[in-house]
Every structure is written in C-alpha cells, then in structure tokens.
Amino acid sequence: MKTTIKQIGKFVDKEVKLGAWLANKRSSGKIAFLQLRDGTGFIQGVVVKAEVGEEKFQQVKDLTQESSLYVTGVVKADDRAPSGFELTVNDIEIIHQAEDYPITPKEHGTEFLMDHRHLWLRSKKQHAIMRIRNEIIRATYEFFNEEGFVKVDPPILTGSSAEGTTNLFHTKYFDEDAYLSQSGQLYMEAAAMALGKVFSFGPTFRAEKSKTRRHLIEFWMIEPEMAFTDHEESLELQENYVSYVIQSALKNCKQELQALERDTAQLEKIKAPFPRISYDDAITFLQKEGYEITWGEDFGAPHETAIAESHDMPVFITNYPKDIKAFYMKPHPEREDVVLCADLIAPEGYGEIIGGSQRIDDEELLKQRFDEHSLSADAYQWYLDLRKYGSVPHSGFGLGLERTVAWISGIEHVRETIPFPRLLNRLYP
C-alpha cells in the first residue's frame, strides 16, 4: 500500500511503500536508522542487516543525505517517536543518489543558509514553519468563510499609493507610472460596497530600507473590509479571528510546534477578548517606565514590547494621533486630534500584527484629507466615488502573515516565515 508519512498511522502492523528523501542516518555493524521525510512529515526507518541481507544493507550504508528512495516496510507504533510511529524497513529502491549535499547536520551561518534557501526549506524546523504558515492560511479562509466574507483579489499593480507614502516600488505601465501595491485596502473598500464583507490575501511590497528582524520587502497580508461596521465591531472581529487562528494551530500543528520547541502554554491562554489601552495611556505608561517619548510620536519596537510585556495577551493600542496615521482614517467623534484606529501588539516581543481603523465615510472630509496629504484628486477620484454613491460606515484591518507566523512559531526572525524572503540586500534565490 503506497501512502505518506502523514497518513501512516492508518496502517499499523501493515506493509506500506513511501516515496521519501533521506534527511539523515546513523548505523552500526548490524542496524541502520534512517531519518526519512516525504514533505508531509518525518519518520524513522529501521533497517536490520539480518532481515534485508548483506547487499541491501550495504546499499543502505552507502546512502547519502537527501538521496531519494522508495522505501517498503511495516509500520510500528512507537510512543518515543515524535510522530508516534516508525517503519521497519524490508526493502529500498534508490531513485537518485545525491552528491555532496551542502547543508549538513553541523551548524551553518545565516548567510550560507539564506544562499541555500531552496535547500534549507527541507530541514525539519523550516518544514515545521511552512506547515504552520499553511495552517494559518487554511484557518483564515475557514474563519472568514464561516463569517460570511467573500474573497476578493485586489490588483498588485496600482496607479497610486494606498497610504500616501513614498516607500513604493516604481515601474512603467506602458506609458504610465505604476507601483507595486503596498496594500489592497482601498480596492477592498470598493469591493465591500458591492459585496458587504470581503477579505483579500495577497503579496504587498514596501520599499523601506529596513534591516530589522520584523521587516520584509515583500510580505503577505490578510485584509478584511466590512460595510455597515463601526470600529468597535471591527475590533471584536479582529480578536475573534486571531483567537481562532491560534486555536487552529495548536490543534493541527502539534508536531510542528514541538519540533520548534515552542512553549505552547503562552499560546493556549490567548482567547478573546483582548485588553485595550489608548494611545494617551500608552504614552503615560511609557514615560513612567523611563522612555523618552512625547505625545504625537509613533511607537518603535522597544515601546511596543514594553506595552506588550505589561499584559499577558495581545493588546490593542487605540486612538492614535491623526497626524501619524493614514489619510483615510475616521476622526474620533469627540476629538479631532485622534482617529478611530487600533494596532494589535502581539506578546513576547513580536510587535504589531494588525493595523485597522474605521474609514472616513464623508465625501467633504475625505477631500480635505486629499488636500492635507497632497494627494492627486484625479488618481483617487474612484476612491472618492465610494463616498458619493451610497456611503456607509465601514471598517477594516490588515494582518501581516509573516509576523503572525513568527509569533505562533516562536522564531526570532520573519525571514524564516516565508518560503523565499526578499530582504534589503537579498533577491536570491
């Protein structure tokens, strides 16, 4: 019976056939232990010389790391194994004998591993991170489908900026200027006016010359947008969504979290609702903690970490000053100097994972914002139309996938959370 490592538990005490790669091996004179992987998981194969014969055992001893094989054997339950099973091998068929595989079990430097990212992905920990990433994506679709959202795909090439910033990748669109999208949000607002509740999931690009462990040049965003929804309702959806994703990862990625040595106790306690602190109170807190920061300044990584460490859950920081936030955010009804927005700060030093707000729904106020931010009325006319034809209260947010993967996986740098990271000085492989 041909199967996969993920499905192997269905065949205890039965003979199966696997297509696999040899991740590692060790052997003595009479027995060999093969660490096998097939993309769905890892399992140990045990080869006993007396059972396979001299010739076959010699073939096994000559196998090199990352050689590809068909392995036939009997599945045995084993509580000591991470997967709960191991394979008693009675035959192997070599598909391809690999030569001089560059990533050995010894320690390698980060730059070396990044240069060999196409191979590094095969390692146990990188495999686990990609599996957790996939589970977060799967749970995201499940959550928003259950909540009645429609998946909409905004364009990647745009004629203007979503947030009025200059950190954009410029290109030529035939005889026009175009930019790689830094957010699909504006287009999602248009989609929400047609479909009610929508979400997108796609790549975004920021031409920021940042080298921090939290930043990528190309990253993926989940961006929901909701008509007839105020800021408070949006916050409730955000905390329910994050809680749902966490619980899905804990349930479906136990082996992967174990492989990463993740302290899951930190994740198990995360359930909605989340604590909230206003920007005003956050400034007061930071000043009392000895940070030199004044009202009107944005928070950096040390500030976010300090605020997060004062709570044992993700925490919303709400109502930032208007002058440090995007042009489309709706002013607070009782204060013109702050807007109805929030950033969700993850625990354990992982920083902001969500930014969201209620959007301006008044045509005249949005025109005023265009003037204040020197935005082209022609380029944004279609966006203004949304306030001319049936404008409604609406809200939305964006969650950065890679930071969320890093947090749930418990890994230090976001470069390991995306298959092929694009960093300030890295476009290869």
TrEMBL record:
Gene Ontology biological process: asparaginyl-tRNA aminoacylation
Signal sequence, renumbered to the chain: none
Cross-referenced InterPro entries: Aa-tRNA-synt_II, aa-tRNA-synth_II, aa-tRNA-synth_II/BPL/LPL, Asn-tRNA-ligase, Asp/Asn-tRNA-synth_IIb, NA-bd_OB-fold, NA-bd_OB_tRNA
Subcellular location(s) per record: Cytoplasm
Pfam family, one: tRNA_anti-codon
Keyword ATP-binding: yes
Protein name: Asparagine--tRNA ligase
Family, as annotated: Belongs to the class-II aminoacyl-tRNA synthetase family.
Summary of subunit composition and partner proteins: Homodimer.
UniProt gene name: asnS
Known catalytic reactions: tRNA(Asn) + L-asparagine + ATP = L-asparaginyl-tRNA(Asn) + AMP + diphosphate + H(+)
Source species taxonomy: Bacteria, Bacillati, Bacillota, Bacilli, Bacillales
EC number: 6.1.1.22
Top-rank taxon, per record: Bacteria
CDD domains per record: AsnRS_cyto_like_N, AsxRS_core
Any one GO CC term of the record: cytoplasm
Domain Aminoacyl-transfer RNA synthetases class-II family profile: 130-429
